[in-house]
Amino acid sequence: MKKISILFSLFSSLLWSASLSSAEITEMISKIKKERVGISIKKLESTVNPFLLIKIKKEENLTKEEIAVIKEVIIEPTYSLDAILNHAVFINKKWYKKGSKIDQYTLVYIGKNRVTLRSPEKEKILFLKKKKYIKLH
After folding, report:
1. Banded model confidence at residue 39, pLDDT cuts 50, 70, 90
2. What is the rounded average pLDDT of the residues 28-33?
3. Whole-number Å distance between alpha carbons of 96 and 117
4. Distance from C-alpha of 73 to C-alpha of 55, rounded to nearest angstrom
5. DSSP assignment, residue 27?
6. pLDDT tens digit string along 113-126?
7. What is the number of helices (H) and of strands (E) in the chain?
8. Given this model, what pLDDT does residue 133 score?
9. What one-character DSSP code corresponds to residue 125?
10. What pLDDT shows up at residue 108?
11. Segment (H or E) for 32
12. CB 96 within 8 A of CB 84
């Protein structure tokens, strides 16, 4: 009984000290209601998409002093490996064999559950997607 009364008095003192006046609550609500100013449409349209690969090229016809750098935006496509069958693979709804060109990549390896695509700059490994089965009762 003594423990319960101590807990009750401690709990009630915490509630009493934590209570807010109506003026404080009104002030908090007025701060929330203030309209926030966001970014302008013009500035938003001029931002660079962070998910694009940017390649930098130099103009050949300019002198060293007049070199202009042009940003060329290249969107890297996504590749989906859906099947491997008889030394052929089904990527992005097309069948390919070893040595085939897929965009800037060459198909260099076909395994049991993965393939390797290689370009002069980089290498990509694609894995078969695991199928999710639904149990029917």
Report:
1. confident
2. 81
3. 11
4. 6
5. H
6. 999 999 988 899 99
7. 3, 9
8. 61
9. E
10. 96
11. helix 22-33
12. no
d(CA 87, CA 108): 12
User: What's the CA gap between 126 and 130, in Å, rounded?
Assistant: 12
Which stretch of DSSP H or E encloses residue 46? helix 41-46
Contact 76, 65 (CB under 8 A): no
Q: Which residue has the higher pLDDT, 68 or 128?
A: 128
One-letter identity of residue 111: G
Amino acid 106: pLDDT: 96
Q: What are phi and psi of 84, to 5 degrees?
A: -130, 125
Structure tokens, 132 = 């999710």
Q: What are 18's two structure tokens?
A: 């934590």
pTM strictly above 0.70? no
Give CA–CA dist 54/71, Å, rounded. Answer: 6
Closest CA to 76 of 56, 103, 100: 103
